[in-house]
Amino acid sequence: MSLYETKIAGLDGTPNRLPTEQGKVTLMVNVASKCGLTPQYEGLERIHERYADQGFSVLGFPCNQFMGQEPGSPAEITEFCSTTYGVTFPLFEKIDVNGNDRHPLYADLTASPDAEGYTGDIRWNFEKFLVSPDGEILARFSPQVEPEAAEVTEAIESALAG
User: Fold this and answer.
1) Residue 63 known to be catalytic
2) Burial readout 62-79 (b: 16 or more C-beta within 10 A, e: otherwise)
3) CATH number of the domain that residue 83 is part of
4) Under 8 Å CB-to-CB from 49, ≥6 apart: which residues?
5) Cβ atoms within 10 A of the Cβ of 42, count?
6) For residue 124, how many other CB atoms are within 10 A of its CB?
7) Which domain holds residue 10?
8) pLDDT digit string, tens, across residues 102-132
9) ∠ CA(19), CA(64), CA(33), 5° rounding?
10) DSSP state of 10
């Protein structure tokens, strides 16, 4: 089963929103509005805009598991992201990325290693996963890796080149 077949609603309540992204290269990121890494929204939006016409999208998955740094309602999250950071990329329903209630999408994503070989639980907000158009996990980047870092943009460009 492709990751894109995983059932998850959009932040606006649109049911089963993820399948509409199949066929694109995506960067799936667990996000939060009250985190020291929240300014990464700026870089995420810039790479979303830079590569969108080539079949790329950033996908944001709000999560409140890290020190309660995403406490907002869907409307509050949407408002914050659009007014503070100009976010236009798709945001999905707030989910758990670790633990017993981990969303099935993240059960699949966390099995993938990063460049240092780390697999397992999400370490913090803004962990990033590059996913191919058919749902294969291509790369994992730690939360501290900036969205516009060379290793991220080079991986995106390589995936888009096919």
Assistant:
1) no
2) bbbbbeebbebebeebbe
3) 3.40.30.10
4) 88
5) 15
6) 18
7) 3-161
8) 999 999 999 999 999 999 999 999 999 999 9
9) 90
10) B
Domain count, the chain: 1
Residue 42 in contact with residue 127, Cβ under 8 Å? no
For the chain of 162 residues, list the mean pLDDT of each consecutive stretch of 10. Answer: 93 95 97 97 98 98 97 96 97 98 97 93 98 97 97 98 89
Cβ neighbours for 131, distance < 8 A, ≥ 6 positions apart: 3, 4, 25, 26, 27, 28, 137, 138
pTM over 0.70: yes
* Catalytic residue (one of 11, 35, 44, 105): 35
Give the chain's count of helices (H) and strands (E).
Answer: 4, 4
